Predict the 3D structure of the following.
Amino acid sequence: QVQLVESGGGSVQAGGSLRVSCAVSGYIDSMYCMGWFRQAPGMEREGVADIDPYGTTNYVDSVRGRFTISKDNAKNLFLQMNSLRNKDTAMYYCAARRAYGCGGLAFLQRRTGYEPAYWGQGTQVTVSS
């Protein structure tokens, strides 16, 4: 069983930066697609960024160039968020699925066969003007 625990959320002013982390425990080898999703109040959960077992990353257009996803040797996951905007306010969730790849944007779009199998409990990010 894989457990994902997010941390690092908080409140920041627009234009500022935050780094959220996802601690991974349980059995997990290197063959995982891992990523970050977010959900604002009253909105659908949306994919933000993912990283495949080989380090290839994908980003949605709204965060490309501002957010950077990474992982360490222990397979913990990180999301560095710069130039934050009010619209980035949301609960941020870490997710994972055992796979040889993320299928481009398939994991972020939760397409059939690429749905995340594991989710964290979320960490809140609030961006104010």
